[in-house]
Amino acid sequence: MIQIPAMPQKRNLSVHNRHVNLLLLIALTCASITILPSSVKAQDSQDVQASVIGIAINKPDPNSEYGQSLVFGRAAGVEVHLQVGTESMHIIALEAEGPGVGIEVPEGKKLEASRFSDISFGAQIDENGKSVRFSISSPEMPPTGTTKLLVKGSVVLLVGENPANAEQAFELKAGAKGKLGAIDVEIEEVGEDSFGEEGLTVSFKSTESLDTLKALRFFDEKGTEIESSPAGRYSFGFGNSKNHNTSYRLAGKHSKIQAKVEYFRETKKVNVPIEQEVTFGF
User: Please, are residues 247 and 22 in contact by the beta-carbon 8 Å criterion?
Assistant: First the structure.
């Protein structure tokens, strides 16, 4: 079995420069991970499944002043990566609210939570809205000899309901206003983009959340669909004073477009309790 190394006497539990990149996570090289079934019940849902998809235990660097580990670019302590999936609902966001999910050792001791505890930051929702991946962490090392961890708590999903379709014509110029579904938007910028031989990038902004947008398609003045792809979405601001932006690449040159929107008229919050036991060893 893997023996968890003893903690150095000197340690710094502050966590800085935490990189959220699931592709860089290495889960106990050469070790097998056994994940026992999760006890999951979700409000208004019978098909929500939660699972641990990765775990890393990073030994502290005794020379680091910032809580880094001996693994380059990783914070010291424990990282657990989870996935919540559903077949019947469409996930549009992982909420930061709620009690969250913690890491415990079998003796019942809960490991200290990372100071960076917003699980919604860096959460990855698949393009079909059927699953979301996120991470939790602790700057503490498990006690020497630990062979399993308990992952317990709950998360809140924001799911879309009552789907609908809408259309809106736009002049392709900064400042043009209209609606994407039920959301008031304004074109923030129209710029050239290398989409094939020629193309445009169109950015829409709004003071309303864009989470209810499911899909956008664009058509030219003759009714021919324009080849397009998402170019990014982000939000910035604090509290209720947030701005939201979504961008698309469009093939060709256009002065006007027709946007066809799939969106959700309503949203619902679904609480998902999670309780899993993770064992590991060679």
Answer: no
Would you mind telling me the total number of residues written for the chain in this entry?
Answer: 282
DSSP 95-160: -S-SSEEEEE-TTSPBPPPPS---TTTT-EE-TTSSEEEEEEEESSPPPTT--EEEEEEEEEEEEE
Confidence band of 8 (pLDDT split at 50, 70, 90): very low
Q: What is the pLDDT of residue 32?
A: 35
pLDDT at 45 over 60: no
Proportion of the chain above pLDDT 90, given as a percent: 61
More reliable by pLDDT, 37 or 268: 268
Mean residue pLDDT of the chain comes to 82
For residue 109 the two structure tokens come to 């001791």
Q: Which two tokens stand for residue 160?
A: 């879309």
What is the identity of the amino acid at 216?
Answer: L
Q: Is 237 left (phi over 0), alpha (psi -120 to 50) or beta?
A: left
Per-residue pLDDT reduced to its tens digit, 204-242: 999 999 999 999 999 999 999 999 999 988 888 776 678
- Give this prediction's pTM: 0.74
